[in-house]
Write a structure and sequence with these properties.
The complex is a heterodimer of chains A (about 110) and B (about 400). Chain A is α+β, with helices and mostly antiparallel strands and about 110 residues long. Chain A contains three helices and five strands. Chain B is of the alpha/beta class and about 400 residues long. The chains are: A alpha+beta (about 110), B alpha/beta (about 400).
Chain lengths: ~110, ~400
């Protein structure tokens, strides 16, 4: 299990045990983390699972795909650290990962 | 909430535990609804995602445990009572209750019909033979998947989204695939001629034997399907036949209770039927669209979610004006197709990008107004178009055609 912490815009924090192989989005859904809707179910088609990845972790969560890049181009409050959590796969390396949720989600 | 069940409140009863029903239930709680919520489904499982059934679930890339829309604990935490394996057979509007097949009466203050649809089987000889499949729910998907494991020759009747997605999955498994379509091109009902023709060529390139303009006469075989006889008499060999011939909305309950139905249950722009206590949402609802100037029945996840939210908002007393810009997506091979808007009535279209490169978008206009966009591996075009359609924008078609003009420019 990999520990992932989701921090809502108001500061509320949720730490969950995420099985490897799922996406960071799926781990949030399974643990009822508010603010990650994932309307399209992880097809990289809706941008309702937007998160900010803490700077230190950016190297480990990988690069945005071109599809993800495009979806993010039109999302709200996009920053350099923005990712779609459906596109980040949970690995052992991500143990301790912290992501922040944008204000407009949830 | 602790009052006697005889006096109420009875809360909201939702019939249909799919994406739409769950969305309405979730939204009611999100908005602070305090009364009971009962979500009734006739399937054995808790609400799950249907789109992967013809895509990643069928190809084995997504396992069952990843299909659930919410974890089991969510329902208890949200105080949403889910009744699975429960079929509602009677709607008694006078007494404000529904009756299940096993005789249980469940009273409501508000009722939401989210009964979805049933995969349509075309009435031809042999339609009931073993080896003839349809695909709408999880059990049908499991049956189809198991059959694909044993099959060699697959015949798919209907080249709509489901037919083509299954064709792609079956080709990935290395099976022989024939797709038989009565219309002149794939996706004839929903997509433009250019897009449908292009997808047809892609499937042929992957080795699918695509037959268009080809009505089906019968499925042949003694006790099990052995082939499909097409117009002209040719028999296409197949040990597995999938009828991917559309959806019939499940309106029986509404019709027998006297609610207005016409290709679905008729609702207003707040998802309300002609009974003010009863709503209908998702695939089964036929809604009025001012944007498109007619009534629409939308078979899409997006509509299921958003119309569910609209019904919840209306129950909470909010004025609702639900007039969606529809969107759909489909994954076939390495292609992501995203469509927003409806193309019917278009009088002008422009193409951006080169189909040869596998990345392009088609923009459809009516009277100078953008009404739809079909995007292949072109998410920027798709998202920008969705916003422009919602805002009734009139982008310059020539500028749209020019790939050196950034899509963001059009939203400024």
């Amino acid at each position: 299990m990999t520990k992932i912490t989701y921090i809502e815009h108001d500061g509320t924090s949720h730490t969950v045990d995420a099985p490897e192989g799922l996406s960071v989005m799926e781990a949030a859904i399974r643990n009822m983390v508010p603010g990650i809707d994932a309307d399209c179910g992880g097809a990289c088609a809706c941008a309702t699972c937007h998160v900010y990845v803490d700077g230190d972790w950016a190297g480990k969560t990988g690069e945005r795909s071109s599809m993800e890049e495009s979806m993010l181009d039109f999302a709200t409050d996009v920053r350099d650290t923005s990712r779609l959590s459906c596109q980040i796969k949970v690995t052992a390396e991500l143990d301790g990962l912290t992501v922040h949720l944008p204000e407009h989600q949830g | 909430m602790t009052q006697s069940p005889l006096s109420g409140p009875f809360g909201t009863v939702i019939i249909g535990a799919g994406q739409a029903g769950l969305s309405a239930a979730t939204e009611l709680r999100k908005r602070g609804y305090q009364d009971p919520i009962t979500l009734i489904g006739d399937e054995a499982s808790l609400p799950y995602q249907r789109p992967p059934l013809s895509k990643a679930y069928l190809s084995g890339d997504l396992t069952l445990d990843r299909l659930w829309l919410k974890p089991e604990a969510f329902y208890e935490k949200s105080q949403i009572e889910v009744l699975t394996n429960t079929r509602v057979t009677t709607l008694d509007r006078a007494r404000q209750l529904v009756i299940t097949k096993d005789g249980r009466e469940i009273a409501y203050d508000y009722l939401i019909l989210a009964t979805g649809g049933t995969a349509r089987r075309i009435p031809i000889p042999g339609a009931d033979l073993m080896g003839v499949h349809v695909l709408r729910d999880l059990i049908e998907a499991d049956g189809l998947s198991a059959a694909l494991d044993q099959a060699r020759h697959v015949a798919i009747i209907g080249a709509g989204y489901i037919g083509l997605e299954v064709a792609a999955s079956a080709r990935k498994r290395g099976l022989d695939v024939t797709v038989i379509e009565a219309a002149e091109r794939p996706m004839a009902r929903t997509a433009s001629a250019l897009l449908g023709g292009w997808f047809g060529a892609i499937h042929r390139g992957y080795g699918v034997d695509l037959r268009v303009n080809t009505p089906v006469e019968a499925i042949v075989g003694d006790d099990k399907a052995e082939g499909v006889r097409i117009a002209g008499g040719e028999v296409i060999t197949a040990d597995l036949v999938l009828m991917a011939t559309g959806l019939t909305p499940n309106t029986q309950l509404a019709e027998s209770a006297g609610l207005s139905c016409n290709d679905g249950i008729e609702v207003d722009d707040s998802a309300r039927t002609d009974d003010p206590l009863i709503y209908a949402i998702g695939d089964v609802a036929n809604l009025p669209s001012a944007r498109y100037g007619r009534s629409l029945r939308l078979e899409s996840v997006h509509n299921a979610i958003e119309q569910g939210k609209a019904a919840a908002a209306s129950i909470m007393g909010e004025a609702v004006n639900y007039d969606p810009v529809p969107w759909f997506w489909s994954d076939q091979y390495e292609l992501k197709l995203q469509i927003t808007g409806l193309i019917e009535g278009a009088d002008q279209r422009v193409r951006r990008g080169d189909p040869e490169e596998g990345r392009f978008a088609l923009f459809h206009f009516k009277d100078g107004r953008l009404i739809a966009c079909e995007a292949v591996n072109a998410p920027q075009e798709y998202i920008a178009a969705q916003r422009m359609i919602a805002q009734d924008k009139r982008p310059d078609p020539e500028a749209l055609r020019d790939v050196t003009v950034a899509m963001k420019t059009f939203l400024a």
